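Hey,
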Amino acid sequence: MQVEAHDERLAAIRAAFPKEGLFAEKEWLLSPDAFPIDKKFLADLEQLGHRLFVFQRACNQLYQLSVKGKQPGWIARYLDAGKPKELIEFSRRKEIRDDLPRVIRPDLILTENGYIIAEIDSVPGGIGLTAWLNQTYSKFDNAIIGGTNGMLGGFHSVLPNGGDIVISQESATYRPEM
């Protein structure tokens, strides 16, 4: 890419930044090109959501069996540690105890041999950032995974009628992107 075109892309990316920012108190190192993902990694990513859903469902079942005394009690004690009694009681209510998060957001770390999952979260932090990246980089490249509105469409499919997003103090840095 020529230096002039490179500089023009960077200027366009800077100009596209939301005035309220993306994450509170963060600075960004910009690239004129989207992060490249090879076909094998993309295929893995496309299967990951279902695999993580199955994993979370199995973990939830293990927890519920531990609560009932059909699996070791330490499992429920460990997962309940530090939580208020009211929250534990609420989460064990029959009508919601089998509910799983609508958003499954793994933190992936790329390695020389692929990737590892460092954390599985259900907080939709990063969705606004990813949507912005899709919209911004799609202006330069029509092969962006998900296209211009892929992340927004995916989020809309999870909450087709909209919904409230509650942001805890712990997640307050995500507020600007939401």
